[in-house]
Specification:
With 419 residues, this protein is an alpha/beta fold. The protein folds into 2 domains: 2-29 and 283-408, Beta Barrel (Lyase, Ornithine Decarboxylase, Chain A, domain 1), CATH 2.40.37.10; 46-281, Alanine racemase (TIM Barrel, Alpha-Beta Barrel). The chain has helices at residues 16-23, 32-45, 61-69, 79-88, 104-112, 122-135, 173-182, 203-220, 247-261, 277-280, 312-316, 405-408, and strands at residues 2-5, 8-11, 14-15, 27-31, 50-54, 73-76, 95-97, 116-119, 139-146, 168-169, 186-192, 228-230, 270-273, 284-295, 299-303, 322-324, 334-339, 348-355, 363-366, 387-392, 395-400. 47% of the residues are buried. It binds ligand LLP. Residues 54, 56-57, 75, 98, 157, 194, 197-198, 232-235, 274-278, 312, 316, 371-372 line the site of ligand LLP. Homodimer.
Length: 419
């Protein structure tokens, strides 16, 4: 999917040098074949599960469309994600509306779209009941429960610890289901949890699944038919080259527990998964051009993308592999620190990397930027967001146009009295 021909990095059969000449930089470039490989890996590993793509990882319409066409559903976390996921073609009956702070308007929208809800608080439960009653509807729900499990990942992306803002606290989870059962316009049909992201060990998922089954046994006694157990997303990808579990590794540990413990229930629940990063993360590079090389305290390589376009290194100290895309056959000879154009010292994309000699005009590829890359971008420092390109064999498609300066002032107004 990513290969080198005559020293030049190619995404499938397309030279990134040619793409940069044609479209300018920076550019997010996605390989459709890689995405489909990831999709197939999940399908093979979990043939009977319902896979809900976590669209927060990458909500480009073309990318979501490919995933929807493969029969996956989607996990949406806001009205906006719900809107985009439906436009991309995910059917309503395969959408789960997550979120710990949904507005009444978002809840109304979800109910109008007939999606299932993952309910994060009792306040939300009562709001759903109220709006559903008004509309004469019955809404299917699962509670997002907080299983209090340490996923051993970066603290900012650990979500299933009892100290986290997410989910119904474990000790009142059964109570919450009791309350839901009494309400006429909500129907509990599943249990949901999500313990974190970029999780490299499978044990915490198995632990979470076991906890969901413990709870399911009790919930069934309330007369609830459990149609699904949703263990969320979170499977890691291999950013560093040290390896990461594959969907098959994941399935090998999850499915035996799922199939065994299912026997304790009268219901016949489906396993739900919500992968984001492990579907899209390694499908995409961020291509950025070198504006200047400077020998200072360090060898700084100043490129045209910064934390405005890729915030993960600054926010989570995340490591992304980098390469000089037009010098892939050259030996690494110096240590460089790749910095962006933003006026903050923290605007570092990659620190102390051994690379071939870097010069102005070179192209730097930043790998594994398909998840939480463009979606977390901003226009900070008056920088229009870049274009996104989808490559399919030797063809490429602009799937998001580069923003213009005009886009920087989109929706702004100067009040009359200032004119
Ligand atoms: N389901 C729920 C309810 C979630 O909150 C998330 C991610 C996922 C599924 C998908 O998790 P994944 O498979 O992608 O790990 N911006 C951070 C990651 C934040 C993850 C938020 N929730 C990063 O760049 O590392």
């Amino acid at each position: 999917m990513f290969k080198v021909i005559d020293g030049v990095l190619h995404v499938e059969d397309v030279s990134v040098v040619e793409l940069a000449e044609e479209l300018g930089t920076p550019l997010y470039i996605t390989s459709k074949a890689k995405l489909e490989e990831n999709i197939e890996a999940y399908k093979r590993a979990f043939p009977d599960a319902e896979i809900l793509y976590a669209v927060k990882a990458n909500n480009n319409l073309a990318i979501m469309r490919i995933i929807a066409k493969h029969g996956f559903g989607a996990d949406v976390f806001s009205g906006g994600e719900l809107y985009m996921a439906r436009l991309a073609g995910f059917p309503s009956n395969k959408l789960l509306f997550n979120g710990n702070s949904k507005s009444d308007e978002e809840i109304e929208m979800g109910i109008d779209c007939n999606v299932k809800f993952s309910v994060d608080s009792l306040d939300e439960l009562y709001t759903i009941q109220k709006i559903a009653e008004k509309k004469g509807k019955i809404v299917e729900i699962a509670f997002r429960v907080n299983p209090d499990i340490d996923p051993k990942t970066h603290p900012k992306i650990a979500t299933g610890l009892k100290t986290s803002k997410f989910g119904i606290p474990w000790d009142i989870a059964l109570e919450a289901y009791k309350k839901a059962v009494e309400l006429p316009n909500v129907k509990p049909v599943g249990i949901h949890c999500h313990i974190g992201s970029q999780i490299k060990e499978i044990d915490p998922f198995v632990e979470a699944l076991n906890r969901l089954f413990d709870l399911a046994v009790e919930i069934e006694k309330l007369g609830v038919e459990i149609r699904f157990l949703d263990i969320g997303g979170g499977l890691a990808i291999d950013y560093t080259g040290e390896g990461a579990p594959t969907p098959q590794d994941f399935a090998n540990e999850i499915l035996p527990v799922f199939n065994e413990r299912k026997k304790e229930l009268n219901s016949d629940p489906k396993l739900y998964l919500e992968p984001g990063r492990s579907l899209v993360g390694n499908t995409t590079i961020l291509l950025t051009k070198v504006n200047a090389v400077k020998k200072a305290y360090k060898n700084f390589v100043a490129v045209d993308a910064g934390f405005n376009l890729l915030i993960r290194p600054v926010l989570y100290n995340a490591y992304h592999r980098v390469a000089v895309a037009n010098k892939m056959d050259k030996e690494a000879e110096e240590t460089y620190t790749i910095v962006g154009p933003i006026c903050e010292s923290g605007d570092i994309l990659a620190e102390d990397r051994k690379l071939p000699k870097v010069e102005k005009g070179d192209l730097i590829a930043i790998f594994d930027t398909g998840a939480y890359g463009f979606v977390m971008s901003s226009q900070y420092n008056g920088r229009p967001r870049c274009a996104e390109v989808l490559v399919d064999g030797s063809r490429w498609y602009v799937v998001r146009e580069r923003e213009s300066y005009g886009d920087l002032i989109y929706k702004q107004r100067i009040p009359d009295f200032l004119l």
